[in-house]
Amino acid sequence: MIISKPAIAGTVESSDALVSVEPGDGKIELTLTSSVMNQYGRQIRETVMETLKRLDVDSVKINVVDKGALDCTLKARVECAVFRSCDASEKDIPWGGVIQ
Amino acid sequence: MIPRPKPERFRLRRTMMFMNAQKPGLIKDAYIYGCDSIMLDLEDAVAENQKDAARFSLYHALKTIDYGDTEVIVRINGLDTPHWQEDIRVCVAGGADGIRIAKCESAQDVHTVEAAVEAAEKEFGVEVGRTLLMAALESPKGILNAYEICTASERMFGVAISGGDFRKCMQTKPQPDGVDMLVARGQMLIAARAAGVQCFDTVFTNLDDMEGYEAEVRQNKAMGFDGKSLINPKQIRLVHELFAPTEKEILQAEKIVRAYREQSAAGVGVFTVDGKMIDIAFIPGAERTLKLARACGLYEGDLV
Amino acid sequence: MKNYVGRDIPDFLLVNGKEVYQGKNYMDGKYLKKASPCTRRFEKPQESKIVPTLADALRQCGAKSGMTFSFHHHLRDGDFVVNMVMKAAIEELGLDNLTIAASSLGAAHDPIADYIEQGKVVGIQTSGIRGRMGEVVSAGKLKTPAIIRSHGGRPRAIEGGEVHIDIAFIAAPTSDCVGNCRGIGGKSNCGSMGYAMTDAKYADHVVVVTDCLVDFPNMPASVEAIDVDAVVMVDSIGNPKKIASAAARISQNPRDLMMAENVAKVIASTPYFKDGFSFQTGVGGPSLAANLFLEKYMDERNIKMGWAIGGICGPMVELLKKGKVGKVIDVQDFDLDAVNSINRTPNHFEMSASQYANPANKGAFVNKLDFVVLAALEIDTGFNVNVLTGSDGVLRGAPGGHPDTAAGSKCCIIVTPLTRGRMATVCEHVVTVTTPGDCVDVLVTDYGIAVNPLRPDLIECLDNAGIPHVSIEWLKDKAYSLVGRPDELQWEDKVVAVLEARDGTILDVVRKIKPFTLE
User: Fold this and answer.
1) Which residues of A touch C394 (CB under 8 A)?
2) What is the pLDDT of residue B194?
3) Which of A86-95, B256-265, B292-301 tops mean pLDDT?
């Protein structure tokens, strides 16, 4: 997917994450802050990168403010932000396709 | 990914607890409180501009979280909104046990949802007929059409009245004795029983008024409801306590079922238990009592 | 050298008779030579001990660089006194190489972090450490390792001379002109002054700092004039809003309530739950809520609580007033209901920290305790509890009376949710052991109850009562299945804090945390 405009999804409530995306310069630039950085920072990064890969996003500036979200929440927030940036978040989502 | 067993159309549903599908902290383990069904809400609890985000959350929650024996129902947005089709797609794709149709007013509404569910089942390779339906009756018209709604589909397992909207339509407010909705509750119960589906009462929203809540739950049980919608885990226990059969009821049911099995094996159709005439018509009720008792942890025998 | 809970204690700490932790009651029966302070005689009758400023008091007490100053924490997050005294000592008298020996330190003491960074404060001995001070100590900026002791371990160390207090500063809500102090009657009321009492008896010099001077004699005094050198009157010793909350409210969080109900069930299933039983609970959500459910069982069985101890708050005072508990004995008050009750409500008494929890005296209250209900940041499969270091390895907590009550009580129940956000509370190895697993009996979580295999008698109680329970390994696996297995924290060699067990042996150390990078 092509990140065509800035979009955000999520909140900074406990157990959630706030994900914002904007058009990139041909690569994935991830900035991550997390309340559980020492113990889960790597796993969070892995989840975010895997999700972007599934969505076929290879050029994006993505900022994740994690407040202890579980993997399933992280995926949901990244996907929603990406789909929103493509104006494609409201219908015909490929559940079970690239969303899994 | 957690595969869920095929939903059971008529299972125990004493307590159905609403949870905002958009709140990760809430939905991750709502089952620990022991309600029979969780109602993940895409409708009123989710702001209009977060409907899309809620679906992504819901999908991954359904696919990731092990809800165990707790039933997972999703309340979708009304048929007069732009959201309900995608809501149905995500429910079916995620493998929700059932869908609650908001603001249902006619058999046609059920048919409309059923068609979309079936299409989604085909699209996502889900067994056709797996996804159950229930309807929320929120208007006088819904109540008047309760019977046709209850009988509109083989997927329908029950109906629930939704007090907030219904009372607004009726220009009334909650009354301590429940008179504001007495007729509607009764009419819906009659329709549900006639159709052979379950029937659930509305939420009680004042969390601090535990006395008022208890009075309502007692009335629910007395009227014959199968269960109640809840908004907070602390409301669960009272329903389970009050809906549980008494020791006397359990003993009586046990005697009836046992006697019936012995007598019918011997070819006898009508017999007496403690001086009361008993025939086959008593058996389903007695068995239901024992099943309920087992679910409440009060019966450990092997008759059901 | 590995200790009883498997923690590696570096040899350089095992000097001057220091030993590693060897299991509970290891020191039982041994003899202790008590320390004796060198105090000044006030033979000539004095009208008043009031001196104009803290600096004057410091000078009068012969304050020098290299000294140890002690403080108590009854003013909690509202305390002004630690900062005022250290400012006077460092900025007015120009002292350095100072050690702070406090019963606890918290967010109110952020400015002390600067003195640590400047090398003016070189030693910290405390039960709790939080906020910026926790961060700078964790970053290795304190010259000597901080020493963390329990509320019972502190008076043991003071009485045995391991901590020699040069000057004790007593923050006093009221005092008279010669230093009789009470925790009530002024504008910064805190109730009990239990943590200050041992300091006053064992310090060479004692300075009372108050913002409410009352007529002589201020009776009954928590700290007595016979131990006091000087009294300093200041504008304000603390912010009352942060000293005690208006009223500790019982949690309405359904998760807390569910766990609290299970705690009460466990308690009611044991043989110790009989008329006259004794009880302590923390003030955390589920711990405090256990009061509510316990009352139901007490009514049902028609029994009363004999006595309760601890940090006290409103719900326990309520029980006392209703006649459902015989006596409340109190080392600290958490809310205004408790502050206003101590020494006023019949049978609500004050006690010192030593009387409360010191393992080296001849019978602290904790030793007679039937039940204690406590929280945890983490608990591992050996039932070891951490209440000190966060998931990032930074100091931000307090053992307090946790290890003392756990060791002394017949049934110690830890209550905590299985996960907090993404943190697994039940884990394989806690970051730091603050209460050893041989003192912990039952764990109640929102996903199930586990009993320490060391207590087959309690397992039988639960079975007889039909209370389901699981192994702590099952809970740990469940937690990791929800949040994922955490990466190990990365440490440097430098020891930044030493965790003393209540008996004075070494339970664990905290090392400097490596700055985290994703690469």
Assistant:
1) none
2) 96
3) A86-95
Whether the predicted interface score ipTM is above 0.90: yes
Instruction: Classify domain B15-243 at the CATH superfamily level.
Output: Phosphoenolpyruvate-binding domains (3.20.20.60)
- For chain C, the distance separating the N- and C-terminal CA atoms, rounded to the nearest angstrom, is 33
Give whole-number Cα distances, B257 to B275, B289, B304, in Å. 15, 10, 9
Do C274 and C231 fall into the same domain? no
pLDDT value of residue B100: 97
Residues C400 and C298 placed together within one structural domain of the fold: yes
Give the number of domains in chain A.
1
Contact in structure between C427 and C479 (CB atoms under 8 Å)? yes
Tell me the shortest Cα–Cα distance from A87 to chain C, in angstroms.
Answer: 31
A40 interfaces chain C, CB cutoff of 8 Å: yes
Question: Does any domain span residue C36?
Answer: no
For C161, the domain range is: 47-243
pLDDT tens across B198-255, in order? 999 999 999 989 999 999 999 999 999 999 999 999 899 999 999 999 889 999 999 8
Co-location of C51 and C142 in the same domain: yes
Contact state of A90 with B82 under an 8 Å Cβ cutoff: yes
- Structural domain count, chain C: 2
Q: Which residue from B52, B82, B93 is facing A96, i.e. has the nearest CB? A: B93
Residue B1 has a pLDDT of 60
CATH of the domain at A57: 3.30.230.10
Cβ pairs bridging B and C (under 8 Å): 17
Q: Are the beta carbons of A89 and B63 separated by less than 8 Å? A: no
C422 at A interface, C-beta within 8 A:
yes
d(CA B109, CA B129): 17
In a domain, C509, yes or no: no
Q: Are C271 and C168 part of one and the same domain?
A: no
In a domain, C424, yes or no: yes
Q: What's the pLDDT at B265?
A: 82
Delimit the domains of chain B by residue range: 15-243, 247-295
Please indicate, yes or no, if residue C9 is contained in any of the structural domains.
no
Sequence-distant (6+) residues with CB within 8 A of A77 are A9, A10, A16, A17, A18, A19, A64, A69, B53, B56
Average pLDDT (B55-70) is: 93
Same domain, C200 and C345: no
Mean pLDDT across the stretch A24-47?
94
Q: Which residue stretches of chain C have pLDDT < 50?
A: none
Please state, for a pLDDT cut of 70, what percent of chain B lies above it. Answer: 99
